[in-house]
Amino acid sequence: MLNCGLADLRLVQPRDGWPSPAALAAASGADAVLEATRLYERLEEAIADLRLVYAATARRRDMNQRVVTPREAAREMRAAAAAGERAGVVFGPERTGLDNDAVALSDAVLMAPLNPRFSSLNLAQAVLLVGWEWYRGAAPEVPRQRRRPGRGQRATSAELVSFFEHLEEQLDAAGFLLPMEKRPTMVRNLRNLFLRAAPTEHEVRTLHGVVTALSGRRKGEG
Amino acid sequence: MLNCGLADLRLVQPRDGWPSPAALAAASGADAVLEATRLYERLEEAIADLRLVYAATARRRDMNQRVVTPREAAREMRAAAAAGERAGVVFGPERTGLDNDAVALSDAVLMAPLNPRFSSLNLAQAVLLVGWEWYRGAAPEVPRQRRRPGRGQRATSAELVSFFEHLEEQLDAAGFLLPMEKRPTMVRNLRNLFLRAAPTEHEVRTLHGVVTALSGRRKGEG
User: Fold this and answer.
1) Which residues of chain A lie closer than 8 angstroms to B28, CB-CB?
2) pLDDT over threshold 60, residue B130
3) ipTM of the complex
4) What is the dihedral of CA B190, B195, B200, B204, to 10 degrees?
5) CA count, 13 A, side-chain hemisphere, B3
6) Nearest-CA distance B209 → chain A (Å)
7) Nearest to B135 among A114, A197, A203 (CB)
8) Which of A75, A181, B173, B219 is deepest in the core (most CB within 10 A)?
9) A66 CB-contact burial (10 Å; exposed 0-12 / middle 13-18 / buried 19+)
10) Which stretches within chain A are classed as H helix?
């Protein structure tokens, strides 16, 4: 990370606890990054303040999510940073990688186009590739402005998750997310659909209002 | 190396001997590369058949040598390969890096422009960066595939409009799209939000179901 000018490391339930003497020994002088590391119990908390989240994965998934290369992600994150929006990349555990629920919390899947017959990288290598493209992106390429002026600030992950939970609570009450064994997939697909739209803070408030309006009168009458 | 389609590994006096059980254990299935590895007593022999040689180093040197980035080196090596000329990159031992004699045998110094205050990479990371730029250089920008096969067909405008009208009808019934003079703007903003997600036919059917579920029980009870 520090090779590429990155210093904001967040860990969710690190396997070997924290602080980790082994990590410190392997850090080759990048102690400052480790000392500033923040710990979280859940991924949702770790990404709560981010407005643009990528899930780094080597596996193809059947989820309806945009897939970007490290270079494209770097370009988008540069543009977000220039607009004052925090962006981040979620990496999975060394052996298992990210699970589908983690991927479903992300705006896009970040996949490095590597040798298709040998595409899995270890965690350190994956972080380096993403960091390298980010760092390289500082100078040569002009960030593309994806957002039109006046569209408003993109919602944070915390705001999105709060809307998702509101929607899912009401859908549970209405008996929509059944049978139970299909619920996780249905929830992921719905979340993904809204994430693809990259809603603004204002739009997330509107969506809350839509769910309340559609389900609210129901409760009042029940 | 194999992540990046590279398989020609040459070792000069490997510190731990060869073959190395530790290397095999760390290779995660890239055994073919290790099995084809060639051993040499001297660097001069290892690079004897190459016509273009880079010395990878993180340190600035006072030698009058051309310095290229991994991306530039990748471009030059691609051109050499296209002309039938073998090219290679020399990496130094993990701790000490390349000595000046090794650098002097090279056509150019390959240096990755990293954080100047923390620029040293470990050997595996350095190899990955060079390999990545080499592999990426094969197809400058892999055609972007924003939508994976199997995601299903994008909904038609008619299908989208049918969903919009269903949603708006229910929101009207719930008194959400008020005051009337603001209704056109609210409708446009909501439609725009869903349009940005570019839903598939299947997703539009799910959205219909969500609106029916949230508002349906309400009607049943009313």
Assistant:
1) 120, 122
2) yes
3) 0.73
4) 20
5) 23
6) 8
7) A114
8) A75
9) buried
10) 21-26, 31-35, 43-46, 70-82, 100-104, 123-136, 157-173, 183-196, 201-221
**Two tokens at A17?**
């606890």
Q: Are A104 and A79 in contact (CB under 8 A)?
A: no
Determine the distance in angstroms separating the CA of A86 from the nearest CA of chain B, rounded to an integer: 21
Q: Which residues contact A128 (CB under 8 A, 6 or more apart)?
A: A3, A4, B121, B125, B128, B129
- Band (pLDDT 50/70/90 cuts) for residue B10 is very high
- Please identify which residue in the block is written with the tokens 């939000």: B193
Bridge partners, residue B67, by sequence? B109
Interface test mutation site (partner A, options B33, B34, B115, B196, max chain A beta carbons within 10 A): B115
Of B145, B194, B211, the CB nearest to A67: B145
Provide the 3-class DSSP secondary structure of residue A38: strand
Question: Tokens representing A165?
Answer: 């939970």
Picking from A62-66, A189-193, B114-118, which range would have the lowest pLDDT averaged per residue?
A62-66
Question: Nearest CA to CA, how far is B163 from chain A (Å)?
Answer: 14
The CA-to-CA distance between both ends of chain B, in Å, stands at 67
Q: Do B217 and A218 touch (CB under 8 A)?
A: yes
**pLDDT for res B97:** 81
**Smallest Cβ distance to A189: which of B121, B136, B206?**
B206
Q: Count other C-beta atoms under 10 Å from residue B138's C-beta.
A: 13
- Rounded Cα distance between A112 and A114, Å, is 6
Separation between Cα atoms, residue A43 and residue B69, nearest integer Å: 36
Tokens coding B70: 């991994």
* Residue pair B130/B1 in contact by the 8 Å Cβ criterion: no
Tell me the C-alpha distance between A206 and B186, whole Å: 9
User: In angstroms, rounded to a whole number, what is the distance separating the alpha carbons of residues A135 and A3?
Assistant: 9
Res B144 pLDDT > 50: no
3-class DSSP state of B87: strand
Q: How far is CA B4 from the centre of its chain?
A: 11
Q: Which residues contact A108 (CB under 8 A, 6 or more apart)?
A: A54, A55, A65, A66, A67, A68, A73
Find out whether A43 and A157 touch, Cβ atoms under 8 Å.
no
Report the gap between the CA of B154 and the closest CA in chain A (Å): 11
Q: Chains A and B: how many Cβ contacts under 8 Å?
A: 156
In this structure, what token pair is assigned to residue A80?
């977000």
Residue among A4, A112, A110, A25 at smallest CA distance from B125 = A4
